[in-house]
Amino acid sequence: MSEILDIREIRKFSDEKLQDEFEDQKESLFNLRFQKAAGQLEDVNAIPRTRRHIARLLMVMRERQLAAEKSNQE
After folding, report:
1. Which class would CATH give 8-73?
2. What distance lies between CA 44 and its chain's CA centroid?
3. Cα 70 to Cα 11, 48, 59, 65, 73, distances in angstroms
């Protein structure tokens, strides 16, 4: 699993890297849930940590979307 990044570091990502990281984290969350169901999950805090990371990624994606819409209106 990749490390959890600070929001300032996430904002430096390109759009492509942001989307790739989002997809990687969604896959990681799926795998963690699968491990939990199988009783093999060792780090019980990994699921909420991954969910928060996904939320940060989505927040930055939404910020960029709103900024693009605002610049298109002007």
Report:
1. mainly alpha
2. 18
3. 18, 33, 16, 9, 5
pTM: 0.88
Cβ atoms of 53 and 9 closer than 8 Å: no
Query: Which residue from 61, 39, 36, 58 is spatially nearest to 47, judged by alpha carbons?
Result: 36
Summarised one tens digit per residue, pLDDT across range 10-50 is 999 999 999 999 999 999 999 999 999 999 999 999 999 99
Tell me the three state secondary structure of residue 30: helix
Residues 6+ apart with CB under 8 A from 20: none
Nearest C-alpha neighbor of 57 from the set 22, 13, 12: 22
Chain segment 45-66, per-residue pLDDT in tens: 999 999 999 999 999 999 999 9
